[in-house]
Amino acid sequence: MTLTVHGVKVPLDPTELSPEIWQALSNGTYEAKEARWVFKSVRPHDRVLELGSGIGILTALIAGIEGVHVWSFEANPSSVRLARRVIEANNLENVTLTQGILAAGPPRDFIFYARKDLWMSSIVEHQGPYDEILTIPSVNIDQFISQHEIDVIVMDIEGAERDLLIEAELPGVERIFLELHDHLYGLAGIRDITQALASKGFGYDPRGSSGPCVLFSRGNEPRLYQSEGPDF
Q1: Three-state DSSP class for 202?
Q2: What is the pLDDT of residues 70-106, one digit of tens each?
Q3: Which residue intervals define the domain Methyltransferase FkbM in the entry (predicted)?
Q4: Which of 10, 164, 184, 216 has the most neighbouring CB atoms within 10 Å?
C-alpha cells in the first residue's frame, strides 16, 4: 500500500507500524510541523546531516531541495528498513542512509530501546515500555561533520539532543534545526541546550522556529531561506 504524505510516496503497510503512527500518516499529521518548518532551515545546495531519520519522510522532503545531499542516521534498524523503502520509492539518489548513532567524543556503545511506536524508540529507558534492547556503537560526530563539510544539521533524536549539543564542537555548521523534548529534560535541559549552543556562536533564530521545532543559526548576516514548504 502506498500513501502520499506531505507529497512523499510512502509504500508502507499498517501492519508494519503502530496504530498511532499509521493514523498520523493517514490523516497527514505525521511530522507535519517539522515538514513545514525544515524548509526555513535548509537552503539549496546545502550539505545536510540528519540525525533520526525515522521512516524517511522528512529525509525525502529535504532531499527534494535543489542541489542538496543528505547524510541520514537512524539507530533503529526497523525504521531504517522502512526509510530505505521510502527513499527508493521517491527515486532519491542524493541520500546516504546509515543505521547507527553519531555522538561526541570517541566511539562507544549506546544502549538503544526499540519500541513498537518507532518514533518513541530512543536511548532513554524511562520513555516507555520497549520491545527490544540493542547495543549500537557510535561514530564521532565532529569528525563526520568535518569530513563531509556539513552546513546544516536536522535532528529529532528523542531527548539525546541535549547531551550531544552540549558535548559536540560542531565545526563549520551554520544551522541546526531540531525538535526539543522538554518532557524528558524539562526547561533546565532547554537552558542547557541554549547556553551550550550560544557558547559555540549559535543563536535562537525565530525565522525558522515554531514551538518545539527550533532553528539555531550562526552569524549575523541576512539569510535567504526556502520561502515555504509543500502546501499541506
Answers
A1: strand
A2: 999 999 998 999 999 999 999 999 999 999 999 999 9
A3: 67-202
A4: 216
